[in-house]
Amino acid sequence: MTAETSQTLDRGLRVLKLLAETDHGLTVTELSKQLGVNRTVVYRLLATLEQHSLVRRDAGGRARVGVGVLGLGRQVHPLVREAALPALRALAEDVGATAHLTVVDGNDALAVAVVEPSWTDYHVAYRTGFRHALDRGAAGRAILTGRCKDIEEEDGFVLTQGELEAGASGAAAPLPADCGIEGSVGVVMLNESVPPEVGPRVVRAASEVAAVLR
């Protein structure tokens, strides 16, 4: 901690991060041990976070992330979209296909930014807000692949044909884990197969998007 930072705010943010990493919640005692502070401090942090609906406690006293974080999360997508647009625009123009940034939303893959190429006669209409199951389509499959520890041992991208739309194929690469957003960057095109140069180009675009999100 430096003189310019707030110890209380830091602890509160650490509480939220710890709770976000667990599905079953944490007790005051568990939080106290993980934070390295006494239980009284944890009680005060939880009470403050509860007032803002960022934390809730169940009947058994376990603390969990509250619904208030949803309101904060809704403001993240526009910022992420704006940051990703330059890399997506370059990808769409280079490949001649619709480029997109897709993030996890529950059990779905949600497109939060889409850029169509300017010079092609035909391209796939893929809209911001489009969602599909994580296990269907290149974007969702890339996100699931990114959760595997051995992603570096593979090509780094996923290819699909006709899973979301007949006659369309897709390529997508997961965002690097250290960028703070679980998602993927990809393209969808009106081809029966993806040209071999597209996969590596998508991987590069994912790295470019991650660089501006870090």
TrEMBL record:
Note the CDD domains from the entry: HTH_ARSR
Question: Which Pfam families does the record cross-reference, listed alphabetically?
Answer: HTH_IclR, IclR_C
The alphabetical list of record keywords is: DNA-binding, Transcription, Transcription regulation
Please identify the protein, giving its name as recorded.
Helix-turn-helix domain-containing protein
- Entries under PROSITE patterns matching the protein: HTH_ICLR
| Organism from which the protein derives | Streptomyces johnsoniae
Fetch the SMART domains from UniProt: HTH_ICLR
Chain ranges of the HTH iclR-type domain: 6-67
